[in-house]
Design a protein that fits this description.
Length: 76
């Protein structure tokens, strides 16, 4: 009874879990870098949040690199 429909549902669930995990990983990476930048700016008593902005941008770039790497992995 586990025909084609069952296989398709399993594949869709697997893809959902995979891409949800990637999204949370991106969010965590960006959030961590922004937090670190904010703490550095707080430690330096900066009036402008330059480290927050720069490390936030670095976090976005790194998370996009992780996304591209995960999308280019061969399927099993």
């Amino acid at each position: 009874m586990g025909g084609l429909g069952s296989n398709k549902a399993k594949r869709e669930t697997t893809n959902f879990v995979k891409y949800t995990g990637v999204a949370f990983q991106m969010l965590a990476t960006i959030g961590l870098f922004v937090f670190l930048g904010y703490k550095i700016d707080g430690y330096r008593n900066s009036t402008t949040l330059i480290f927050t902005a720069l490390l936030g941008l670095l976090g976005v770039i790194l998370s996009l690199v992780q996304l591209i790497r995960s999308l280019n992995k061969p399927r099993k």
